[in-house]
Structures are given as structure tokens and as C-alpha cells.
Design goal:
The complex is a heterodimer of chains A (441) and B (405). Chain A is α/β, with parallel strands linked by helices and 441 residues long. Helices cover 40% and strands 19% of the residues of chain A. Chain A is globular, with a radius of gyration of 22 Å. Chain B is of the alpha/beta class and 405 residues long. In chain B, the strands form 3 sheets. In chain B, strands 6, 7, 8, 9, 10, 11, 12, 13 and 14 form a 9-stranded mixed sheet that branches. Chain B: Keywords: Glycosyltransferase, Transferase.
Chain lengths: 441, 405
């Protein structure tokens, strides 16, 4: 089904009277995010033809939209992950107690759970790393959002990656807590590693220059690290806008960066049981909204500089999570940690992105296989993905589905280009870490 | 094969259920008088399910539904005091005991009908009755209106009800259902939450699971459409076949419409749902045509009835046959009358056959609830339905009309 851009992104606070939902002139639909206590608890969307929806109608829909988001926060045992494991594995099932489930009132329990994540006083100091390249306007917007929460942040490192002008340096000048670091070698992994080396906080948080952080972003990151096993925390990436058709298809057809409103712990829930099938580490989150404990650098190293934008394309983040999880530590996804991301505007950018994603993914699978010897990565690379694409190609051969090639073709090219990483085979030393932290700082 | 049906009130102490002699368990979860969830579970040799096991099962299967209900409870919902007048029509043929049971349930609604609707009327349409028994049963219930529709066929009866009814809304229930106590209150809930809707359907749960045929039917999904409120429009992002896949809207055993709107689109198609040999499709056709008017279509789980499924395997097989037959007859008819949606309707045919074939394949490998022959029967019904069944039915109905003119 072709969706018609532009869509409006609407935020609804459940503490306020529920508004009716309607479209304005020319809008193709509305993407609605439901908030409670400044936490996103539900996401839904309406096409223009489904609207208007009266406020009483919308109120009646809300309980089932937000039940998972609310439940996973106050009763994690009764709401295990929504991530599906391979069909041959036992699916996670709820183990909580019925008394807790039936205990009222919910709204108070939820408010209590929410205030806990705000008040957990963590001794952590948070350094923020923003990698950028020639995107002055966006960077300014990102830094402005960080400036509003400057009191929660120890420092902000802006890494200027192979810049073509001094614009970034000028933007960062005179800003509170902001430090400018130039990295002439292109590549996102390189820039992130450089940024990390420049930090001194106990937690290093990453966001992208095309994102805007939520006012409670840093505080909640600090609280999410309360368990010592957690080496990496990711959060929810919401669309900042859905103005163009490529932004819309990225969010609605390709799933966007969002990972839902239910929190997850990855080590035992998903990673371990799925090793034989290729662990789906990309579910952990998105690099545009993640934070790492400094000690992780000693344990697993930094980002692999062959991966990521400017190199293989992407998946430097998921490969990093793979190392953390394989080392027996935990990654956590907490949707209360929010950034708003401005997706790519044009069709050409979206196609490039799809190609880069697939290429990066294939490279990362190969790197993970060599480094850890988990054959599941090969199974995914040479069995699961080809099978998926054969089905997709057959479906797209039907005349009525030719528009699917628009996004399918770049993915196929990306897959083939990614196999180029096979030449790294004999160069990867399984025992090495991409960036041993001690020797280069 | 029998399953134990247990109504579990979550506000009370959980019971321990004795499963001796039962192959499984069907739980209807209720809280504060509202239906929360339905759970179907095999016994797997257990003779007793004690309270703690039951609690685990409920947490595993119904956490989300229980929480959603609690959230709703804590929301401040302002229900309108009373809804406009409602007529409930029971179209029946030669099943007086069932009509009796159905009328009894309508008499014990909770809250009482007078508190829910401005006016409430019960209408029994006796379709081509061979004797006076139904009339006698109706006479025992006070305030029930009785009319005879001499032309045999469910949709003749439904159209008769349309003309006889006084209510602003007209609810249809089959004679083989029993309304749940909160049925009318559920209708009011759906209406007050969706004042712009013209058509409503509701949950259909099993009345009994005493025979293998009933258990099979329910385990394959029965008439259940879930415990989430739904609102259908002419588009649905999650269903590319909307609004043609009208089966997802609900079931004809429990549906209600604004009477004026049904009259405006010309009532029910009398060539569908004619009784044998084409006892079906009339509901699908009405759902589809209502959805095509552009008015929202609402499914409400609290607007619930219990349906007495076919008891014999042969009857069940016949039911699946008529599902295939009627579904395709409906599609053939819509394809003819609604050129704007022809492409989508053809897609629906393709999807339906692919889906049936894949179910058949699963069944052959022993991975389906139904034996292969049941699915084959439904498939074959679909083939016959495509091959001119609607036209044959139109001719049959024309003859009936002639006869009574």
C-alpha cells in the first residue's frame, strides 16, 4: 500500500484530555506517539481515510495500544520480550504473579516506576559524543537540544569528520561544555573512536547530528546503567518529522529506527538462544541513540573501523553490541531514553541508505563469524538472507508489485557489495580488539 | 472430545478445575462484569488444574488484556446515559427450543435494557414455519413481537425485520446464540465511543464444547475476533484487502446497524443467505456494502454472544463447505456490482485460495487442527461458489418471489 506524504507527527500526553485526531489539508496521515509521565508508552498511526477520529473513540483505543508499554515498565516478569525467537526455540513466556497483575491502581504504580528512573541518583558522569560532517544547521539544532540539559551532562565532544569547511568549528565555539575535536580520517567508526578517546566521563553517550534529544535523555541514561552487567544502553528513536515520501517509507515500510515501547534485556532473552541462527543484534537499538560504559572499552574495545558509514556502510554499532553480548555482558533497550531523528529527505538518499545498510550488515556478519566463530552468522548470510530475497524477488516480479523494486534493488546491490568483505577473512585476528583502549590514548 | 468451559471471575478466588473426562479447557475471563479474554488450553493428561496453575496460565495468556482493562478502568470514561432505541431481531426457522433459550437470555440482561436504551424491542421473525410451535414459545414471553415471513431464506427474514422494526438501531442475532448479560451495555459502549459508526459487530464465544465438532470448530478460531476494540474504514494499513476481506469485520450471528443506513443501501441481498443450498454470505455482503458507504464499522468485544456450534462432524463439514461456497458467491456478486474494487476482489480470491491450499498442506503434514478433508471441502465449496453459484441462487430466489406474489 503506497502511503501519501506528508504525514504529521503528533504527541499526545495521556495526563491531558485526549484530543480528537484529524488531518489537515494535504496530509496523508498522522503518526501518533502517546506519552505518560514523559515516557512514550504507545505508538499508533492513522491514514487520512481513517480520520477524523473523535476524542471518545481515540480514548477507547488507548488502553490496548499502551498496555505493553505500561506493563513492561511496572511488571517486567509478566511482559517478557516481544522479540520472536526462531520457531524451533521455546518462546519466552510470562512468569509474573497474577496478584501483581491485578493489583490496582496502575496509574500510581506507573508514576512511581517512572519517578524511580528519574531519581535514581547515579554517580555517573556522562560525556556526549556527536559526530558530524558538514551539516551545520542540523548540528546547531542538536547542540541546542543538548544545551537545554547541560546540567545533566559532563561534556559534549563534537567530532568533525573530514570537514570541507570550518563551519562546524565555528558553531561549537563559545558553547558551554562543548569541545571541538577534528578527525581528518573519514568514517563514522573512526570518528566515534576518536570522540571516545577525548572523553573523560564514566558513561559515553552517542547521538547523531541529525537528531534532537529529549529533555530527560541524559538523566535516564544515567539511571539505565544501574546494573553493573549493563555495558551498553540504547533508546527509542522517534521520527522528528515525516514530511517527504522517503522519510515516510523509511519509518512505516522499513520499520525506521524505532524499537518499540517495550524495554528489553538482550543477553539471555535474545542473544544466547539465537546464536545458532545468527543473533539479531540489530534489535538492540540504533547508533543514533546509545550509551556505553567506559569500562566496555577495556573489555571489548571500540568500534571496528572497517564498518560503519564512510567504510562498509553501517552495522558498526550492532557489531559492537555483538562483542559485548558475546563477552557475557548485557545490552539494554529502554524506550524512555528518547531522541527525535530527522530521516533522509530524498529518494536517492534513502536508496543509498538501504544499499549501505545491507552492505554493512553483510560485512558485519562476516566479521562476527570470524571473530567469534559463531556459524549462525554464516547461516544468516548464506541461507536466511538469500531465502528472504528469493521470496521478495518472486513477489516483486508481479506487475502490480513493481514499485517494490525501488527499495529491493538497492538492498540486493548492497548484499553483493557486502560480500567484498570476504577479502578480510585472513586479515582478522580473532583475538584482537578493534581498538585496544590502553595503547593509543 | 469435550472441553470444559469455565467462567473465571478475576475478582474472586481462583477455583481448582477438575478436568476428568475433558480433553481441554476453555476459560472465559471476566473482571468487574467485563469480558477480558478467552483462553483455549489442551488438558495434556492433566486431571486437575489447581488455582496456582490456573494463575500461571492466565498470566501467560492474558497479561496484556488484563492490563488494558485496568488502564481503561482508571481512565475517566463518560458513557452516555442511554442510547437511542434498539430493536433486536431473531430470525429463526423451526427451532422453537432455541428461540426460547435466546429470549430468556434477552430477558435477563444486566444492566436492564430499560437503563441502557431509550426503547428496547424484541422481534422474532419466523421464517416459513411448518407449525405453530415457535409462535407458542414467543407467546410465553411477554412483550416480544412476532411476525411470520413466509418466503424461506434468512435474508428474506432479515429484510422483513428491517421493515417491521421500530428501533433506531437494529441488532440481528441468530437463533442459535445466547446473548451475554453485558451484550446491550456493550452495544451502548461501542455506540457512545463511536457516535459516527453505522454498523457494529461483536464477539462470538462458544456456548458449549461438548462434541468433537464443536471443539474442532473453536480450536480453528471459531467466530472469535479478539478482545480488542476495532474500527474499520474503507482503508486499513494492516489489511491490504480492506474493505473486501469483510470476514474480518465480524460474524452475522451478532451484528447491528443503524436501520436507516441499511434501508438506504437497499437492505440485505435476498439471493445470499438463502438457507440451503446457499446458507451464507449475506452478512459478508452487508458488511462490505456498509463499509463501502464510508461510515466506520466497529467491532466491540463487550457486545458478546455465545454461539451453539454444530454438534455433528457431518454438520461441521457442511458448514465449512458453505463458508467456501458463500464467500465466493459474495465475491462474485461484489465483483459484478462494484467495478471500483474489482482488482482488490480478484486479489482476495487469489489470497483465499492460496491460504486454503497452505492450510491444506499443513493439514496433510499433521500441523493443522482440522483433518485434510474438512479443508478440502471448504476449498471445493469455494470452487463451486466461483462457478456460478450466485446466479443459480438468484434464479432460485426469483422463483420463490414469483411463488408468493
Amino acid at each position: 500500500m503506497m502511503l501519501q506524504a506528508p504525514w504529521r507527527v503528533e504527541h499526545v500526553d495521556l495526563a491531558q484530555p485526549i484530543p480528537p485526531i484529524s488531518v489537515h489539508m494535504g496530509e496523508g496521515g498522522v503518526y501518533v506517539i502517546l506519552w505518560s509521565n514523559e515516557i512514550p508508552v504507545g505508538i499508533t498511526s492513522f491514514m487520512a481515510a481513517q480520520l477524523p477520529i473523535l476524542s471518545e473513540t481515540f480514548s477507547a483505543m488507548i488502553p490496548s495500544i499502551v498496555a505493553l508499554g505500561v506493563g513492561s515498565r511496572i511488571l517486567p516478569d509478566s511482559f517478557p520480550g516481544t522479540l520472536r525467537l526462531h520457531r524451533s526455540l521455546p518462546q519466552p513466556s510470562a512468569t509474573g504473579s497474577l496478584e501483581h497483575l491485578l493489583s490496582a491502581p496502575l496509574s500510581e504504580a506507573f508514576a512511581r516506576a517512572c519517578s524511580e528512573i528519574e531519581t535514581t541518583s547515579s554517580p555517573a558522569t556522562i560525556s556526549v559524543v556527536v559526530c558530524t560532517r558538514d551539516r551545520g544547521e542540523m548540528l546547531k539544532r542538536c547542540l541546542d537540544s543538548l544545551a537545554r540539559i547541560a546540567k545533566d551532562i559532563h561534556e559534549i565532544i563534537v567530532v568533525d569528520n573530514a570537514p570541507s569547511s570550518p563551519e562546524t568549528a565555528e558553531i561549537t565555539r563559545g558553547r558551554e561544555k562543548v569541545r571541538y575535536v577534528a578527525e581528518p580520517r573519514p568514517g563514522l567508526s573512526v570518528a566515534r573512536n576518536t570522540g571516545m578517546r577525548a572523553t573523560s566521563g564514566s558513561i559515553i553517550a552517542f547521538t547523531d547530528d541529525d537528531a534532537v534529544v529529549h529533555p530527560r535523555w541524559a538523566r535516564r541514561i544515567g539511571a539505565a546503567f544501574s546494573h553493573p552487567d549493563v555495558l551498553c544502553v540504547t533508546g527509542l528513536v522517534l521520527p522528528l518529522e515525516l514530511r517527504t515520501s522517503s522519510q515516510l517509507s523509511f519509518e512505516m515500510e522499513l520499520g525506521g529506527f524505532g524499537r518499540g515501547v517495550q524495554s528489553h534485556r538482550f543477553r539471555d532473552q535474545v542473544f544466547r538462544p539465537m546464536i545458532p541462527f545468527g543473533s539479531p543484534v540489530w534489535h538492540v537499538g540504533a547508533g543514533a541513540n546509545m550509551a556505553v560504559r567506559r569500562s566496555a572499552l577495556q573489555i571489548v574495545g571500540g568500534f571496528d573501523e572497517r564498518l560503519g558509514a564512510g567504510a562498509s556502510g553501517c552495522s558498526e554499532d550492532s557489531e559492537f553490541w555483538y562483542r559485548i553480548l558475546a563477552a557475557g555482558y548485557d545490552c539494554r533497550y529502554d524506550p524512555s531514553i528518547v531522541v527525535h531523528h530527522e530521516h533522509r529527505h530524498t529518494e536517492a538518499q534513502l536508496e543509498n541508505q538501504m544499499r549501505a545498510y545491507m552492505k554493512g550488515h553483510v560485512s558485519a556478519l562476516l566479521v562476527q563469524w570470524v571473530r567469534h566463530g559463531h556459524a549462525g552468522n554464516l547461516r544468516r548470510l548464506f541461507l536466511t538472507l538469500p531465502r528472504h530475497y528469493v521470496v521478495a524477488i518472486l513477489a516483486a516480479l508481479r506487475p502490480s508489485c513493481w514499485n517494490r523494486w525501488r527499495l529491493l534493488a538497492p538492498q540486493l546491490t548492497g548484499y553483493i557489495c557486502g560480500l567484498e568483505a570476504l577479502r578480510w577473512f585472513w586479515k582478522i585476528d580473532p583475538s584482537s580488539r578493534p581498538w585496544p583502549s590502553g595503547d593509543r590514548t | 472430545m469435550r472441553y470444559l468451559i469455565a467462567r473465571i471471575d478475576l475478582d474472586e478466588q481462583l477455583p481448582s478445575l477438575a478436568l476428568k473426562g475433558y480433553q481441554g479447557l476453555a476459560l472465559i475471563l471476566v473482571r468487574r462484569g467485563r469480558l477480558i479474554e478467552f483462553i483455549l488450553e489442551e488438558a495434556r493428561g492433566r486431571e486437575v488444574v489447581d488455582a496456582s496453575e490456573l494463575a500461571q496460565l492466565i498470566v501467560r495468556k492474558a497479561s496484556e488484556a488484563i492490563l488494558a482493562d485496568q488502564i481503561r478502568h482508571e481512565q475517566q470514561n463518560h458513557l452516555s446515559s442511554r442510547m437511542p432505541s434498539v430493536t433486536v431481531a431473531i430470525c429463526t426457522r423451526n427451532r422453537p427450543e432455541w428461540v426460547d433459550r435466546c429470549l430468556l437470555a434477552l430477558g435477563s440482561l444486566n444492566p436492564a435494557a430499560s437503563d441502557v436504551a431509550e426503547d428496547f424491542e424484541v422481534l422474532v421473525v419466523d421464517n416459513a414455519p411448518p407449525d405453530e410451535r415457535t409462535a407458542a414459545v414467543v407467546a410465553r414471553h411477554s412483550g416480544v413481537k412476532y411476525v411470520v415471513e413466509p418466503r424461506a431464506g434468512l435474508n428474506f427474514g432479515r429484510n422483513r425485520a428491517l421493515n417491521e422494526a421500530k428501533g433506531h438501531f437494529l441488532a440481528y442475532i441468530d437463533d442459535d446464540v445466547v446473548v451475554s448479560p453485558g451484550w446491550l451495555a456493550g452495544f451502548r459502549e461501542a455506540w457512545s465511543e463511536n457516535p459516527d459508526a453505522k454498523a457494529f459487530t461483536g464477539l462470538v464465544l462458544p456456548f458449549s464444547l461438548d462434541t468433537e465438532a464443536q471443539v474442532l470448530f473453536e480450536r480453528r478460531g471459531g467466530f472469535r475476533r479478539g478482545f480488542r476494540k476495532k474500527r474499520f474504514c474503507s482503508v486499513d494499513p494492516s489489511n491490504p484487502l480492506a474493505p473486501c476481506g469483510a470476514g474480518s469485520f465480524g460474524a452475522g450471528a451478532n451484528m447491528a446497524f443503524e436501520r436507516e443506513s441499511v434501508l438506504k443501501i437497499g437492505g440485505f441481498d435476498e439471493a445470499l443467505d438463502t438457507g440451503a443450498p446457499l446458507p451464507g454470505g449475506g452478512d459478508l455482503d452487508m458488511f462490505y456494502r456498509m463499509a463501502r458507504t464510508g461510515a466506520p464499522f466497529v467491532y466491540e468485544p463487550q457486545f458478546a454472544v455465545l454461539h451453539d456450534h454444530r454438534r455433528e462432524i457431518a454438520q461441521l463439514r457442511r458448514q465449512y463447505w458453505t463458508w467456501g461456497l458463500a464467500h465466493m458467491a459474495f465475491i462474485v456478486k461484489s465483483h459484478r456490482t462494484d467495478p471500483a474494487y474489482r482488482r482488490l476482489l480478484r486479489k482476495l480470491v487469489r489470497w483465499w485460495f492460496l491460504d486454503q491450499f497452505s492450510q491444506f498442506w499443513l493439514s496433510l503434514r499433521g500441523r493443522h487442527v482440522l483433518p485434510p478433508n474438512m479443508i478440502a471441502v471448504e476449498l471445493w465449496g469455494g470452487v463451486i461458489g466461483l462457478l456460478g453459484e450466485y446466479d443459480r441462487s438468484v434464479r432460485r430466489v426469483a422463483k420463490i418471489r414469483e411463488h408468493y406474489q
